[in-house]
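Page 42, continued from yesterday. The earlier attempt failed because a stray header line got pasted into the input along with the sequence. Redoing it now with the clean sequence only.
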Amino acid sequence: MSLASLANPLASAAAQLRILNNGARLRKTFAESLAESGLAPLTATGIGVFQINVGKLCNQTCGHCHVDAGPDRREVMTRETAELCVAALRSTDIPTVDITGGAPELNPNFRWLVEQSRGLGSRVIDRCNLSVLLLSSQADLAEFLAAHQVEIVASLPYYLEQQTDAQRGAGVFDKSIQALKKLNALGYGRENSALRLDLVYNPVGAFLPPAQRTIEADFKRELARRHGIVFNSLYTITNMPISRFLDFLLRSGNYDRYMDKLITAYNPGAAEGVMCRYTLSVGWDGALYDCDFNQMLDLPIGYDAPAHIRDFNTALLDRRRIIVGQHCYGCTAGSGSSCGGAVAL
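This time it went through. Structure tokens are written below.
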């Protein structure tokens, strides 16, 4: 399908899927690659991470954002749905709650979710864009996160201003540095501290990320040298060919080349450990998905597993069959990609 045939490739998830599925006719499908690897059908191995996407509201509009989040989005998880999430957690021993968005902190129920999850003994992760910590309405946010020992996973496209602002908007790099210094001052990222601070790197352009350990060493050296900033680990994440990044690929003429790169780099080892096998994704409206990427493509959990958090059933979800598509090559190319970084180091 010519990208020019779609006036607005982001008009709907269905339009994005048409692009991806049409390309599959000319290339190997992800399902075929799984079968050749002896991994079809792909199934869950249990739920170790309960990921809650609390909405698409964000104080930034990033060029790579797979959520298509921004200040004008109105999809926000209600208190009722948040309570259903906590009720589901209470019925299980899932160890990790991963709260994402948008900027999850802008959801009015974010702090309540953190308090309830920590009260259940869960490890809590906040997917933070850093600049949100500087908003006047969030003046005490960093202190709140530290007080509840929330782990912070923060996106920082690069350790230099030009590359970061190109992806996330003018002035975002400076704000990110200010926020990181604020977190360091509270103890985040420091040796022998219980406050964990991890960074996320994803490429600005249409290429795969470098080796995670190599780029982590670069970030640690340069952020310490230039700004006195420390952190625990850096995660590399491959840009997924959906939403705004798909739009970029189409408009820049890089779509075919990028998809070919992902398919050629398919790694069975990464596929075996892909995050959807141990993660359950909850949408802002309570719908259930195998991962956050499927959520953005409106690909809900299937094969007779519960479709909404109100019907949560551990036995039916633990070993569910996973919905896959061409975008899944983004998580299985090279060293693999997940919310926790590279899969096959």
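Notes: Confidence is low (pLDDT under 50) at residues 1-9.
Reminder to self: strip header lines before submitting.
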